[in-house]
Amino acid sequence: MSAPARMLHPVQHTLPRDLLHDLRTPLGHILGYSEMLIEQMQESGREEFLPHLEKIRKAGNDLLDLMNNNLTSAEGG
Amino acid sequence: MPKILLVEDNEMNRDMLSRRLQRKGYEVMIAVDGQLGVEMARSEVPDLILMDMSLPVIDGWEATRALKAAKETSSIPIIALTAHAMSTDRDKAIAAGCDDYDTKPIELSRLLGKMEVLMGGAGGSSAAGGSR
Q1: Residue B30 and residue B9 in contact, taking contact as beta carbons nearer than 8 Å
Q2: What ipTM, to 2 d.p.?
Q3: Architecture per CATH, B3-120
Q4: Residues A27, A60 contacting (CB under 8 angstroms)
Q5: What number of C-beta contacts closer than 8 Å exist between A and B?
Q6: For residue B28, is pLDDT > 70?
């Protein structure tokens, strides 16, 4: 299926409940630390790394969207 | 400065969330398992508890039930935090006595909003523009 077709007909993939949990935990670290560093750099005026940190945060949010929209728990919980 | 008890066994979650809350003006105390969480809640009487639910020794559901059953801790608001994101997880946390529920990954502004509602608007210093 082409990428545009996948967007029109999203497929729900089912994963074990614990695997979903274990995917979300490190993703939370990536998002949390990148957001914390972005805030600290903005406050301190040290903006040289901001574009890179924004890319890390965006990639994390894209991954979270993918998980939320395409993955469901095998146990329904 | 509002006092928050963070009950969390994952070291990176503890480090990240405690730093971010401290930067928003909260005093953060940490317990690394459910039993320690119950003991610290009794001794420190925090303004609010952030309770991970998958915890060693006793889990977050049992710890919440113990805290809500005890007179000296029953009025402390508890927000359940879990990386399980389904509605049944929310229902299970509320049934155990949690006052609210939030999912990981934590969206800090959303969590701060829930904390301030439960503490009656007694937020950290961020509302006054302060941060560290």
Answers
A1: no
A2: 0.81
A3: 3-Layer(aba) Sandwich (3.40)
A4: yes
A5: 57
A6: yes
